[in-house]
Amino acid sequence: MTRFADFHARSIHDRDAFWAEQAQRVDWKVPPQQICDYSHPPFAKWFVGGETNLCHNAVDRHLQDRAEQAALIFVSTETDQEKTYTYRELHAEVQRMAAILQDLGVVKGDRVLIYMPMIAEAAFAMLACVRLGAIHSVVFGGFASHSLASRIEDASPKVIISADAGSRGGKAVAYKPLLDEGIRLSAHKPDKVLMVDRHLVAFTPVAGRDVDYASARAQHMDTIVPCVWVESTHPSYTLYTSGTTGKPKGVQRDTGGYTVALASSIPLIYQSQPGDTFFCTSDIGWVVGHSYIIYAPLIGGMATIMYEGLPTRPDGGIWWSLVEKYKVNVMFSAPTAIRVLKKQDPALLSKYDLSSLKALFLAGEPLDEPTAKWISEGLNGKAIIDNYWQTETGWPILTICNGVEKAPSKFGSPGKAVYGYNVKLVDDQTGEELTGANQKGVLTIEGPLPPGNLQTIWRDDQRFVNTYWKTVPGKLVYSTFDWAVRDEDGYFFILGRTDDVINVAGHRLGTREIEESISSHPNIAEVAVVGVADQLKGQVAMAFAIVKDSSGLLDAASRLKLEGEVMKVVDSQLGAVARPSRVLFVSALPKTRSGKLLRRAIQAVAEGRDPGDLTTMDDPAALQQIVDLIQI
Ligand code: AMP
């Protein structure tokens, strides 16, 4: 057995002893009494009886050894700001933010929704919440009012923290009007809204509700706010993710398990150590941003770079210039970003001193071979490591754990099952485990899910069970909803989703959510949204819609006008990330005789592929219309 195979086997077969060791990487106020309580499958409770605090582990515990070391390096090429916070300074800022939240009535268990751009205050806000035992729910700044409203309603936050605006390509993007509209649309209203005023756009505060951050902070320059020790199973945050229904799911994470999982990943997966500099280019609105911009690097005593801006502005060398300037040791990004950089001048890669960089990790979507090869060559053969994970898991399911044992990567494969994950490929029809090489099956995980994974869906245990654990016949296993194969060496290859979820530039979007938004346009009767392969973004959404009144749609110009209107509806309700690349108008949609939309067939023809078996189709002319439209 290789060292890694042995390590992995121990994590499954000697689970409690394995995780008890990993738990020593973390400070506990009260040590755990039981490592894993799996007496009520599929609900796993990790480090039961233990008391800890995520903010203590990320910030306070480092004061002893590294108070003057950089902790948070904020860089904005949007507003030309650059500021390094040492651990001591970060500690002070987090306490100020925590003191403000306390003034606003926030106590342990309260929810705080964070709708912010990539600014240092967003990191203070997240850390301040977990310091108090409050449960944060970060909503990606690119989401618009309807996406916000559904999340506000589900999380029912006492306080929302926001800012006047984000910025993209040097242009301010106002957040406040979207937030006000989101609150108006939501049945739940927060008591207070804490506003960070960046002075990018003017806004009118809502009297009695909106609180100015700068003034509130000035009252608390020296306030001491101790960490609130919470049970290991106390939720640290919820993060909403799309699924097959229109209603996003609030992925709920614990405290102790998450802290231990991240603490273990730093040496074992990311091969990093205290004092290193970590640069994750994601956004705090996504799970990768939670885990690898904020929590893991800080838990690991590293400096973390928080970057607001495009990868191509002022030019495509900006990220590499930051690697040189801050001596970045580990970078974490997404294949889409690398595909964007691939279009830039290749000389930009050799212009900077990248000798500090050990590895580049990529996650969120399949890493195609040309992209992997291009960046690997550009970085002079530095390790390029694919990570496969989900919002639900909080850290990688599949990768190469070079910190356990060095192993080669294979193009197109994220690698092997990470320690703690009992991954099984199963037949979707029979539920039978597929153990042979190169057999295609659904990638599942046998319970208990390892530490750091979702505990449940916020306020909906039943949905957690039904969504993830009831899809494989005769077995209680967690479904990732991804097809995969495993080769003879145990390397997995991800083949795509089993459901109607699409992945645009590494962001998961539910086609149903986009359909619901498009349907709210007064002239849309019915619509089908599918994901279509795209060279840059991996996939893009494409919509096929039936209009109620087609009398005004006789020429191309009027169709284009309606297409633009529909896109605007999606922009204003869900955000530009969800905007379909095209909205094409048809008189019928391909369905089965029982009325079920034939999405796979639509997707196939939209990608110029053979739609396969169509014997159940009601009206073949409906599909032909799509074929004809695509060919135009
Ligand atoms: P999200 O929860 O938004 O991060 O989306 C998770 C989904 O993205 C997974 O279920 C996969 O479909 C896809 N995904 C994430 N990472 C990878 C990867 N490294 N290779 C292939 N697909 C990936």
What would you say this structure looks like, in words?
With 632 residues, the chain is α/β, with parallel strands linked by helices. The chain folds into two domains: 4-309 and 387-446, Rossmann fold (3-Layer(aba) Sandwich); 501-631, ANL, C-terminal domain (GMP Synthetase, Chain A, domain 3, 2-Layer Sandwich), CATH 3.30.300. Helices cover 31% and strands 25% of the residues. It has 20 helices and 32 strands. The strands form nine sheets. It has an eight-stranded mixed β-sheet, sandwiched between helices. Strands 5-4-17-16-18-19-20 form a seven-stranded mixed β-sheet, with helices on both faces. It has a four-stranded antiparallel β-sheet with strand order 23-24-26-27. β14 (237-241) and β15 form a beta hairpin. α13 (335-342) packs across α15 (369-378). Adenosine monophosphate is lined by residues 241, 287, 363-367, 386-391, 414, 480, 482, 494, 497, 503, 507-508. Residues 241, 287, 363-367, 386-391, 414, 480, 482, 494, 497, 503, 507-508 line the site of adenosine monophosphate (AMP).
